[in-house]
Design brief:
The complex is a heterodimer of chains A (297) and B (292). With 297 residues, chain A is mainly α. Chain A has 13 helices and 2 strands; from the N terminus they run αββαααααααααααα. Chain B contains 14 helices and no strands. Classes of the chains: A mainly alpha (297), B mainly alpha (292).
Chain lengths: 297, 292
Amino acid sequence: MKVLRVKPWTIAAFVGPGLLLYVCLVFVPILVSVYNGMFDWNGIGASEWAGFANFHKMLFNDKVFWPAVNHTLQMAILSLVIQLPVALFVAILISRHVRRANFLVTSYFLPVILSVVVIGQLWKTILNPASQGGMINQILDKIGLHAWTHSWLTEPKYAMYSIILVGLWQYLGYHVLIQFTGIQNIPADIYEAARIDGADGFKADRYITVPMIVPIFKISVVLSFIGSLQSFDRILVMTAGGPAHATEVLASHMYYQSFLSLKYGYGSAIACFLVVFSLAATVVVNLVFNQLEKRYT
Amino acid sequence: MSQTAVASAQQTTAANRRRFSVSRILIYALLAILFVTQLYPLLWLVIYSFKTNEEILSGSFFSLPASWQWVNYENALGGGSYWKYLGNSVIVTAVTIAAVIVLSGMVAFAISRFRWKYGQYVLLLFLVGMMIPLQSTLLPLMLMFKHIDILNTRWSIILPYIAFQTPISVFILAGFFQTFPNEIEESAIVDGAGVWRIFTRIILPVSVPPVVTVCILTFINIWNEYVLAATFISSERLKTLPFGVYSFVSQYSVNYGAIGAFLVLGALPVVIVYFLLAEKITKGMVAGAVKG
């Protein structure tokens, strides 16, 4: 039982400043968004009551909206299904075969701490056409695969995948680190016991590492999934949603509608959708993992 | 824990050495390839930043520059905007970190140590907030800030930074504060110490590890933040480093070498910090992820 009996004023003094700032700058804006979503407004003139027209337009009359939702999901799901299994595999290999594992994990992690602006510009340079110094195209040219060279970020067919690739590259190290730490925390005697029972090597991984790492894996899933739903700074820096909206995601669509086209009401409507979308995704991920954890533990 | 893990790793390596040497070579090859793909782009950028435009465009992606073009760095540093951006980033990040520690420390202390009915509800409120994407608040925040006339000041980015770092920090700190035995406060009360004194003199000094974690998470997130800064700041003299790098790149779009140099300079501060504190940073980021 907690022992500090304090006056209500003391509680208010301790909780008040942090909570107030937080509620005013995180919750109030969401409510303001819902309210603004009901108006037609360009920020300067008078706003006009629009009811649910903005939401209706967003769902049924916006040629960019559903492709943007699609790209958002594409980014989230591809990061999930490519990045996490690779990260888990690498984490298992490192913890099993490498003596000075920390050096390797720390090196893989380096891209994670760099700003999206630096990463985005770096990869823009790498993906440029060879005539502008792009590394990938220059390599393809050198090894005689000129036919494979592309202007990766300006051809609609490849732009989204290029963006996803950069995300995979930047955050792989994060997931390797998280899962490596998870594996290190599995008690060694479990492996001992399994070896006596004849389970060793990858067999031990199949029956011990994988089930025991489910809770940590969940953290990776949430980070990767929610992270890609929300990450549009990379798109802002690398393609600005182009070419022809081929890399537009929900957040970038919201951003350009609000700050470029100055459709404040419409931008707010998309922002509301984004909040609901993120909350729903979190709930779904949690439900799925509750089932998994029940099955394995 | 780490000792047993090392012991088991050694035993398994010993066992494996006897059996699969071909697969071991494959494994090392894979890890080495990954090492190259993760780090070579960064090294490539450093080399790139020392080349002339002709060398960059000529297609010799692998070669070193004929002569190292320090002039690229002179161009990047010319005018002193780099130092200005760097200074702004230091100010913004430092103020945010200090405020986050004090504010979330107080909230976490109240939630975990006060005899108080609503603590868990406050914690729940913070939990919900962690799932709200920052960018969905951009537009309403801009309108609010315009209204109270703080748009395009440092406060317009510092305040939301604090607000968005608070939930995770409260979680980390409250989790740690809960582990203290009640005797700490009991004896402090007997000695006549007030609540504020207990918090600042007894609790905070023994909470260095979680406070370091909070510092690291806040530093990495805020130092690199771009979208909010680019939306709320418009004057050149207030730009933070990521925004500054972006402006420089769009301004000098044909001077490839200078752009490369500016990107290297933009990455340098955080890379230096990482070299000095790699272990603390990776631990902190894992702790942040696990709590989140």
